Amino acid sequence: MQCQECGKRPATLHYTKIINGEKTEFHLCEVCAKGKGEQMPGVESFSIHNLLSGLLNLDGQFAEDPNARSSVATQGLRCPTCGLTYSQFSKIGRFGCSDCYQAFSDRLDPLFRRVHGHTTHRGKVPERTGGKLRIRREIDELKQEMSRRIENEEFEEAARLRDRIRDLQEKLDS
Amino acid sequence: MSYQRFNQHALSEWMRGKGPRSDIVISSRVRIARNLSGLPFPMLATSSQSAGIVRKVEEALRHQNRPQVMEGAELIRMDDLEDLEKRVLVEKHLISPQLAEESRHGAVVLSRNEAVSIMINEEDHIRIQCLFPGFQPQEAWKMADNLDDWFERHLTYAFSETKGYLTSCPTNAGTGIRASVMVHLPALAMTQQLNRLFPAITQVGLAVRGIYGEGSEALGNLYQVSNQVTLGQQEEEIIQKLAGVVRQMIQHEHGARNRIQESSLTKLEDRIYRSYGILSNARVISSKEAMQRLSDVRLGVDMGLIPDLSAQVMNELMILTQPGFLQTRSKQRLDIEERDIRRAGMIREYLSMKRESE
């Protein structure tokens, strides 16, 4: 059967729409079906989560290789807090709770690298509860600033920075 | 009920408001995803845990010194709304279809001017969204950042030093930020330059998608550009990159408009006035055709060809002619044909009212 829209390509998608009892049949090729976008049943399901689980299921390829690490270890991974298993996570593409990040941590960095190109957070830190991390970040920044000053032979300023770093370090250790 | 208030003035401030570069940029939006520490994400939360999250946000909002924009804000529970009422909130971009249809104990906090909407129990416990008219991604981020700081004083977030703010979906982890800008690109579409522009945008890690409609054929030539990466970059970097790319798009669109005006003004005028004529006179119009005609008319307004209309015509009508709005306005459910008739009527009425008032 030819596609009823373009009349050129073979129809691969057949469906019936019923609106207020009025039946309409559609026979479309893939190209024209995509064009219809919105009204298409099933198109919505091709979501980010499906794509994501595609990325996660890369394990499947390796499982067939007898030399690759057994996927049993992965199958058995389970978040102790919410009970979500790694294989459930890889199907739905969502974590069950914040502890899943820790429970699956060994497996997550390749995923984060594929999705974000990075594995470590560099953005905002909560003001009230992110205390230590904020201090550590500040120390890192001050250290960089200090080495710049030393290179420029601005020793007085460098010494001032060194003292601030020491203060912050004490605050961190306390 | 509070919902009435929001429906009375059907249009949010961002639809009326004149933001910078509003000849091309319709709106700028920033949303950040946050979860509360020690509770499962909404997908696995029990009913009482989900209800508890709504209560916690409600209590937080009662604290002193809340950001000024939240004065008079109201919390609306999805369970208290009719389907049609939810649909209108979706059409105004204040809540997501997911919150409207799938959430358990879903709720939204709306600021008076509707620039801020905070979704509760959507995919994440809290999603703070700030929506500004025109090209203001920085301003939207600043407001979201402020609200986030303020919430954090009263709520403890799920946060990890290496993975940042922990979100239900790994595509949001880290900053939890999704910044997007809605642009109207009729001239680039007419001159078929979008298929060269979009791959370049995708390459720098941003996503482009049509609004209202799928694939390359966006209805009304409206596109949304947004960041994809949320982990490993700072929020400011993400916003700046997005803003930089959108600035380029604005330039290209201006260039294309100028070239069309120089090379084929009469043809362009013909197209614009035909669309104006159809919108002013049609008795039946589909949403697809309405969006395309509105895009033409909007371009005509921007180029000074239709002096008796303001640029808001498209922003307002594209919302007012959505199915939820049409049905709410006529106070009944309508099938597709009836909606097409009401839509045509609504547009005629709107245009004649605007012509008289100018």
- What is the H/E order of chain B? HHEHEHHEEEHEEEHHEEHHHHHH
Task: Please give the oligomerization state of what you see.
Answer: heterodimer
How do the strands of the widest beta sheet of chain B line up side by side? 2-3-4-5-1-8-10-9
Residue runs with pLDDT of under 50 for 5 or more positions of chain A: 38-45, 58-72
The spatial strand order of the largest sheet of chain A comes to 1-2
Output the structural class of chain A. Answer: mainly alpha
Spell out the key features of this protein:
heterodimer, A: 174 residues, mainly alpha, 3 domains, two-stranded antiparallel sheet, 8% strand, B: 358 residues, alpha+beta, Creatine Kinase, Chain A, domain 2, two-stranded antiparallel ribbon, 14 helices, globular, ATP-guanido_PTrfase (chain B), kinase (chain B)
Please provide a written account of the structure.
The complex is a heterodimer of chains A (174) and B (358). Chain A is mainly alpha-helical and 174 residues long. Chain A has 3 domains: 13-46, no CATH class; 48-58 and 75-123, no CATH class; 130-173. Chain A has helices spanning 30-36, 48-56, 58-63, 72-76, 86-92, 100-103, 105-116, 131-151, 155-173; strands at residues 13-19, 22-28. Chain A has a two-stranded antiparallel ribbon. The longest helix of chain A is centred in the last third of the chain and has 21 residues, at 131-151. In chain B, strand 6 (159-160) and strand 7 (164-165) form a beta hairpin. Chains A and B meet through helix 2 and helix 7 of A and helix 6, strand 6 and strand 7 of B. Chain B: It holds the Pfam family ATP-gua_Ptrans.
